DNA sequence: ACGACGGCCCTCG
DNA sequence: ACGAGGGCCGTCG
């Protein structure tokens, strides 16, 4: 695992259940504003995805685009949606309902 | 060392 | 509200 990835994971792990954050914001929190794209890259390549490992993994599904639309997911977008809804996050169309309200960080 | 590519972002029409 | 274009950063071949 690279240094950058560790920072990202650490941050993302802090996102509480039922809330979300964005690639850009996470990047900024990691001290690399503008590295939003790289963040997505990191999520994709992380070895302990939440949906496989469980609560000890990284909740990559709680990270979305800055306009409230979903973004991608290595395990398939369908699964990302399921996970989110399972946590109580409502999704309307291709975007998150009340995005700003449940946004953290 | 180098070029290519992403789970993107922001600014304009 | 919505698409197009250009920029940016870390990784992997």
Notes on the protein architecture:
By secondary structure, this protein is mainly α. Helices cover 44% and strands 8% of the residues. It contains 6 helices and 4 strands; from the N terminus they run H-E-H-H-H-E-H-E-E-H. The protein has helices at 3-13, 23-29, 36-45, 50-53, 77-86, 99-102, and strands at 21-22, 63-64, 91-92, 95-96. A two-stranded parallel ribbon has the order 1-2. The chain has a two-stranded antiparallel ribbon with strand order 3-4. Helix 2 crosses helix 3. The longest helix is centred in the first third of the chain and has 11 residues, at 3-13. It is globular, with a radius of gyration of 12 Å. The two termini are 24 Å apart. The model has no long low-confidence stretch (mean pLDDT 96). The structure holds a DNA duplex (13 and 13 nucleotides).
What are the main properties of this structure?
single chain, 105 residues, mainly alpha, two-stranded parallel ribbon, two-stranded antiparallel ribbon, 44% helix, 8% strand, DNA-binding
Molecular shape: globular
How do the strands line up in the largest sheet? 1-2
Largest sheet: 2 strands, parallel
Terminus-to-terminus distance: 24 Å
From the helix content, strand content and strand pairing, which structural class follows? mainly alpha
> Which stretches are low in confidence, meaning pLDDT under 50 for 5 or more residues running?
none
By DSSP (H or I, 4+ residues per run), the number of helices equals: 6
- Rg, Å, rounded: 12 Å
